[in-house]
Design a protein that fits this description.
The protein has about 525 residues and is an alpha/beta fold. Helix content is about 35%, strand content about 10%. The strands form 4 sheets. A 6-stranded parallel β-sheet has the order 2-3-4-5-6-7. A 6-stranded mixed β-sheet has the order 11-16-15-14-12-13, sandwiched between helices. The protein is globular and about 70 Å long.
Amino acid sequence: MDDPTIRGLVGGVLWPGFLGRGIPDLFRRELDEGGLAGLVLFAHNLGDEGERMSLAADLRDHGRPLVVGIDEEGGNVTRVESATGSTLPGPAQLGFVDDLAITEAVGAELAHRSLAVGANVVLAPVADVNTDPRNPVIGVRSFGDSAGLVGRHAVAQARGIRLAGAAAAAKHFPGHGDTHLDSHHAMPTLEIDLDELERTHLPPFQALVDAGVPAIMTAHVVVPAWGGQPSTLNPIALGRLRAMGFEGVIITDALDMAAVRESVGAGPGAVRALLAGADLLCISNPTNLGAAAAPDQDARDFLEVQRAILGAVDDGTLPVAVLERAAARVRVLAASLPASLPASRPGTDGAAGARGAGVRAAGPGDPIALAGGFDPVDAAAVARAAISIDGDLPRSPAPRTVLDIRGRSTLAVASDRDFFESALAAGGPVLRGDAAVPGSGPLIVLADRIGGDGPQRDRIANVARLRPDAVVVDAGVPGGGLPLPVVHTRAASRLAADAAAIVLAEGADEPEGSP
């Protein structure tokens, strides 16, 4: 800690989240004196427009390039729009529509919105191939279940992010799509052989490497053929990524996730990740512990990792050369990035601000045009085109009763507000779980896990016996064979909900036309 060179090298590989709407004193000191690489922004850091502008200016005015990240995927995962619900199409919607120009334009808009709040690294695209319909953490965050489709769209979205001036950090190597456990809560294992991994899950990452993606985030998943360690801590896994020709920054998924925290611990995990070949250590979202989080959880998480790395240098476990290599890669990435979005850009005025330059202000249900050097894309039309319908859909006028049978969202989804169910209800009541099924009036059953056998399909079968006139709205990976008509939205965003509400009101045939 007393050696400024070593302290600077350690700081140069650390990427913490923080509590509050402004940079806490600890992290300000680490940025100014400790060589901290940058920060990761979460929904709780983003307040009103004035607070966002102040934070973005603070991040910009540090006198050296910082790496500032944010999870902004469109669809289910947004930090910028967590208070209102995402108004951009998500990956599964884009994969279903399968128009690479639209996916590229959405990538650019994700970058614009991220840059507007001070983040210059977009933690997207999701390059996971979702081959397990039970997957609780990826699902509709993936472009689809085939390597070719996912690879094409991941490259297109990364290209859009780059053209808008930010860096894409693709995730989650070597693929989190064939798991039925959430690494936020447990340690998933890819129960597939290496041939299947190479054939199905690695090709999208190879396509991104070939396209020059500057950063790739790891997955806390075990590949048994590579040993018992999760890929984030596994030199075989990260060596495989380098063997694919990747020379950019390897970013760890958050070290506070249970897959690492409850196996080896965040501090020892940080040391193992560096030894395995990682460059930038995403430390934590300090709100993930919920009510169990301490008021200074961000500082505790950071200091645990920082002290573990310094201790490993002191006792010789971690060679300084490893830190030098990793910190050098991070500095190259930082030097290539803008500090944040300028006050205005061609085709916009400065007022576009924190919402995202080039996006016309819109109310619920209004079309949102994506711009920024691309042909305008009507996001509402994309969401409508991404909907498919199973069965004969009756007209369901508002207000409607919504019976929400979904389980808890993954921690990857920032907001605990549910815009989806309220948009579908349109003023009607919202019931949850095992609530009694109402005997009359339009009834919508909201589900997101019907791709395989399980409690949601069982509940729908029970509802169908009582209310054969009910309709299922499926916000997850589609599954067939249900006894009720189903509207598949392929996202649980505000944009998808508004599109579904229109389809429910119209009833009858599948939506026609293209965006």
